[in-house]
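Marked as duplicate of an earlier ticket. Keeping the data here for the record.
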Amino acid sequence: MGRRYRMTSLALGSGTWGASGACARGHDGVGGASWLNQRIPLAYDARPDGGEQPSTEDAMSEANAKFLDTFSAWLRSLGEDSAALGAVLEVEDCPQVAREAVAGGLNYLFKSLDLIPDGIDDIGYLDDAFVLRVACELAAREDLSRTPPAAVQTVERLAADAAIVREFLEKDYERLEAYVRGLRRGAARGRTVTDIVGDAQVRSEFLADLNGFARGYEPPTFTREEKNLVKLRAFFDAKLPR
């Protein structure tokens, strides 16, 4: 017999999210942009006209179970990880390129227009967690032999996690890596990466803001449902520059 398919979709952008996936307003409150009204398929619920239970009753894949558990842990540790990375910026013996990579990743925390708006249920801070890990992977490619072991340990721990980001995003990982590289040339709250790394006063102010973020950060609820992984992939696919 044939199957009936029910498609669930997601409208991208920030704002109020309804059960249908519609977004009540655009990014930063501005509506009307056509790309914000995209509807991204989230799942196809195949329902046979008889016989066995629907496919949605199938057991969760081992890979998706790993992603859900890992990403939940990353959300819980985001404040802690951010504060630990901040210490790397104060290490003069750390290579300039490595410090810039880390500074770009940390400065992303304060961008008003990030890849996934922080208010999005479940996944709003996962882009920040992904960006920090890719930034550390870039930093770890440099010679860190003269860098204090404590700083190296933080960078290498998060850099190792980038392998999971690569596994999850697959072909979109290269686009994310290119985006993170570009953060070195960006700015947030009026502070450039060059100023954060090269100007002691700017760096001191930045680290004060970073520590304030770390202290005030409250991990969002991350529901252990596969639809969150589909939604997460959809955002990266739609928002990363091509």
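See parent ticket for discussion. The radius of gyration is 20 Å.
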